[in-house]
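Memo subject: From amino acid sequence to discrete backbone structure tokens
Keywords: amino acid chain, backbone geometry, structure tokens, three-dimensional fold.
Body of memo: The sequence and its backbone structure tokens, given next.
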Amino acid sequence: MSEVFRIIGKNLVQFWDEVFSFATGLQRIILMKRFYFPIILTVLIFFSCKIDTGIEPTQSGFRGTVHFINDWPEQTDQVIVVAATKFPPATITDIILGDPLPLGVDSASYQIFNPPAEFAAVGVVWKEKDQPWDVTNIIGIYFPTDNKFSPGVVKIKNRKTVVDSIDIVADLSKAKLKVESTIAGKLHVNGPWPDDATSVLVIASQSFPPAGLLDVAFGQPIPAKFDSTQSYNLSVQPGKYKLIGCLILQSNSPLGLESLKGIYFKRPTDFFPGVVTVPTDTSKITNIDITINF
């Protein structure tokens, strides 16, 4: 199409050049006004309609309602909806953030605009006053089914798609305050690593078995395929923990209970996991060693 307009324009210019060659000065001015100006104006209008400035607002994304349960902590600073391209996210680049939600309410609607993408999880993150954002301080996750260990995938197919009804129940009792208390120990590997193993997550839960991901405290990802021993340090809230273990994240397998490859036992012959009590928010519990069995 552009080649056709180029040829037409070239022929028009040649034609009017020939006409101008026989015209006087005043006649040329009149011809310019009557013929060249309309042609130039038409060409400018045509091409201005064809140019894509690239600044059209993003219309695609997803939306839903967050339903809050239990009491709002006094230390609440902000609450936002986040979406992660990987779950759990490894870096901040794996996450997009929504706008802050209203506080002290029973529910709040939200919408996040984003170009076409697929998100492994959408959740609600709680922030404490005078503390930095911690994307692991999750109080709610989008679960489309009754499986509370499998976050729902949200896929934005094209630039006109707005995925609706991404509703989340946010449990404010799951908000984690800034503490100094930790559980630490060593990870021992028994057997060869799976080829697709990517990282290790040390977890702790005050219930056994945990009812879902929100009952689990996650540590920072540890790169997989380390040698036989690796130290870990897990930040936890004070309480009695009935399960401490390791999840192995694999690129070809979803995260779930089957990812649990190591559990802390006080004695190798014990049938139930060892219970660990963290009495205060400054307690440092050590020598909680875990064997990862493949």
The chain is about 15% helix and 35% strand. The first strand starts at residue 61 and ends at 69. Helices lie at 2-21, 25-50. The radius of gyration is 31 Å.
